[in-house]
Amino acid sequence: MGVPGESKQFKAGSTLPKLNDKGLTVFSMRFCPYAERVRLLLNVKHVPYEVVNIDLKSKPEWFLERNPLGKVPAIEEPGKKPLFESLVLAEYLDEQYPGSRQVVPKDAYEKARQKVLIEVLAQKVTVPFYGAFLRNEYDALSAALDDVEKQFLGSKFFAGDNQGYVDLMVWPWFERLPALASLSEGAFDFSSARYPKLVAWSEALLSDPDIKATTYSKELFAQFIKGRDGDAGL
Amino acid sequence: MGVPGESKQFKAGSTLPKLNDKGLTVFSMRFCPYAERVRLLLNVKHVPYEVVNIDLKSKPEWFLERNPLGKVPAIEEPGKKPLFESLVLAEYLDEQYPGSRQVVPKDAYEKARQKVLIEVLAQKVTVPFYGAFLRNEYDALSAALDDVEKQFLGSKFFAGDNQGYVDLMVWPWFERLPALASLSEGAFDFSSARYPKLVAWSEALLSDPDIKATTYSKELFAQFIKGRDGDAGL
């Protein structure tokens, strides 16, 4: 297959495709930030995997058998039952597939500290993010980002001086902000004038070639946001 | 102090009490099932800790400084910043404080499998649980428990033949079911006739003296549910 994750979506009534019999299959949706957490982790570790995209508006029966919660990401490995939940998968995959680097901190306290920060940032940003994404409500998102900029980005990265687990796990939501801004008709400003630290952080992450390679253009994200079509641009 | 967790709640305007300078302080609320996850894990491992109870309807300012999400459980250790989120804490404490037994599985796949099951059971049961707890709506809870009984309890414990991490982490919600049933005026039946496997599982967990020792009576839970008062019975 070509770029991982670039295949069309499977829908209700479809037949289960042949899964990767040599390693990992990732059930994903190209624009789902939770699924991106897992693809991003595997990409920065240079761990190979195959992707099966799921139409979240018309889920295949064989997918619901794999994940009773019906959500992506999920994974399957030969001879093992499927697993799901993005953060459970991230920790599992980091441990099970060492690849070229370890992402989750080895030290118990530092690991817990970053996991707490992932939850705080997720809860602060996710709710207003979907207000902007689904209902064009931008004020709560702008205020949440002011708070994140001021209170939680005390160093170059959320993890500290170097990029870490927390940065990868929260990146998918921040990655989509330029597309949201482009659709907001001026109501939402994600510029370095307004958010100097967050924009510098975004640029620092995008200077990592593995992260850059998994990032869609602002235009493609905007196309998805307008149409809610996971096959957008294919 | 006496039985861990039996002290009165601290409210807004209170002064920070002296924290445990030799080890763990757990910020809790006696009847909070999330906080109970952490106390239960520490109890079965025989790890000592001190408890500071928080009035969740009138949170002390010093607590909100520790956890910007304002939730219990949270922990603090001398010289370290506080941590929170029940499942993050459970994994951290199991690793950092070995105590008399390991609770979280060592094997990466088995650990992930149990973490997935915790999420599935939490999502299936938690939402209808609060419908029953807050609004006396019992039908959705009964149906969810039918599903859990039939689909997810294929062995004596959720973890398998032996009690495991998933059992401890979901127990607090099930522990409260007899109290909910006693208040339901017949609308909710948590008997072995209706749920033979779940009731047998509850009895098996309660035969563990460490779990039994942290369990409140049906009457005390019912008193809390009626008054929503974390100091109930003190």
TrEMBL record, chains A, B:
Its EC number is 1.20.4.2, 1.8.5.1, 2.5.1.18. It catalyses: methylarsonate + 2 glutathione + H(+) = methylarsonous acid + glutathione disulfide + H2O; L-dehydroascorbate + 2 glutathione = glutathione disulfide + L-ascorbate; RX + glutathione = an S-substituted glutathione + a halide anion + H(+). Gene3D superfamilies: 1.20.1050.10, Glutaredoxin. Residues 107-224 form the GST C-terminal domain. Pfam families: GST_C_2, GST_N_3. Residues 22-101 form the GST N-terminal domain. This is Glutathione S-transferase omega.
